[in-house]
UniProtKB/TrEMBL annotation:
<dbReference type="InterPro" id="IPR001680">
    <property type="entry name" value="WD40_rpt"/>
</dbReference>
<keyword id="KW-0677">Repeat</keyword>
<keyword id="KW-0539">Nucleus</keyword>
<protein>
    <submittedName>
        <fullName>Nuclear pore complex protein NUP43</fullName>
    </submittedName>
</protein>
<dbReference type="GO" id="GO:0031080">
    <property type="term" value="C:nuclear pore outer ring"/>
</dbReference>
<dbReference type="InterPro" id="IPR036322">
    <property type="entry name" value="WD40_repeat_dom_sf"/>
</dbReference>
<dbReference type="InterPro" id="IPR015943">
    <property type="entry name" value="WD40/YVTN_repeat-like_dom_sf"/>
</dbReference>
<keyword id="KW-0853">WD repeat</keyword>
Length: 362
């Protein structure tokens, strides 16, 4: 079932909601083979049976004259996973998209998607390389390496070696630190984030510890929080975008490392940086569809527009120095979302009330 609405701003918005049978822990678009082959990946959990699964959905547009813009989703493949999925990421190779799924039991599961035949296949796994829940995971651009972080303070790298998986520990905080998110910045660099709104830049060419750190102490101890999500723009790899507790969204520019660029939330008295959310920001992504309102004055020091989803049901676009633009305000949490790389006007998000929403901007 789809419900369509439109925004009152200059940007027209269509929202289509699709109830599901299970709770959705994470989701994302898979890379497109063509404009006729679009797929969404879901990580689901059934609270009654405690079963979890990966589901591959086919996304098509209806061709009826009455509702030509309405999408339609069809389940193509479903695989039961041995544990509940905590984080889900995919490579961007349309011919061989690899899927990395981390679990609440500390495992890494690797799958392959066949987008032509609409199937999912299990490839390999690494068991128990984290103690407890894996908080974040990311896949390198070529799909050959995975990086993971956990609440146990461990950072692990997993690589494909001779058809198998080889893992090594980059860092172990021995329970003294906790990580919530990780993101590749280059084939040899990645950024981690965790408690205290801290960020760490790691370079595999310089082992032993992070090569640069940002300690989020701008609130002078008045609040504590954790980074839940990190994004790095492919054309500006020196700037990290982070979202976390208390509606906080900020950027860390490696060229000016001492102070964060606060886009929303705590630590600012700037009215334009007021957060559209007062609760946890679960996910943050750069929004390549939104053009900066100050495009004539845009520079390398200006943070590009971003999109967030939150525990209090907000999906919004945030731009430095501007008031946020609210896309959705749901009566339940928006747990995760993704922007289609090939068609950035399209967004998919998961709602806590066991449904997904597909948004189209025009």
């Amino acid at each position: 079932m789809a419900v369509i609405t439109s925004s009152s701003s200059s940007q027209q918005l269509q929202v289509h909601r699709f109830p599901q049978n299970n709770y959705i822990d994470s989701l994302g678009f898979l890379p497109q083979l063509s404009s006729f082959h679009r797929h969404i990946l879901l990580a689901t959990f059934n609270s009654d049976s405690s079963n979890s699964s990966l589901q591959l959905l086919n996304l098509t547009q209806k061709t009826s004259n009455s509702d030509s813009n309405s999408p339609e989703i069809t389940l193509q493949s479903s695989l039961t996973t041995p544990s509940r999925i905590s984080s889900l990421k995919t490579s961007q190779n349309p011919n061989k998209p690899l899927i990395a799924a981390s679990t609440f039991s500390g495992d890494l599961l690797v799958y392959k998607a066949d987008l032509v035949n609409g199937s999912l296949d299990f490839l390999n796994s690494v068991k128990g390389f984290h103690s407890g829940r894996v908080a974040g995971i990311d896949v390198s651009e070529n799909g050959s390496e995975f990086v993971s972080v956990g609440e146990d303070g461990r950072i692990n790298l997993v690589s494909f070696v001779n058809g198998g998986l080889s893992s090594k520990r980059v860092f172990d905080g021995n329970g003294l630190v906790s990580y919530g998110a990780v993101k590749w910045a280059s084939p040899v660099e990645f950024v981690s984030g965790g408690l205290g709104f801290g960020l760490q830049w790691w370079d595999q060419r310089r082992p032993g510890g992070p090569v640069s750190q940002f300690k989020g102490n701008w609130t002078h101890g008045s609040t504590s929080g954790i980074v839940h999500s990190i994004d790095i723009h492919p054309s500006r790899k020196h700037t990290c975008l982070a979202g976390g507790s208390s509606g906080t969204v900020f950027a860390w520019d490696l060229r000016w490392q001492q102070q964060p660029i606060i886009l929303a939330g705590v630590g600012t008295s700037d009215l334009s940086a007021l957060s559209p959310s007062e609760s946890d920001v679960w996910e943050v992504h750069y929004d390549n569809y939104t053009t900066s309102s100050n495009y004539r004055n845009i520079s390398e020091s200006r943070v590009l527009p971003a999109m967030i989803c939150s525990e209090d049901g907000i999906l919004a676009v945030i731009e430095q120095g501007e008031e946020p633009v609210e896309l959705l305000a749901e009566p339940c949490a928006i747990n995760s979302f993704d922007i289609d790389r090939q068609n950035p006007s399209d967004i998919v998000c998961s709602l806590e009330w066991e449904s997904i929403a597909i948004l189209t901007r025009s």
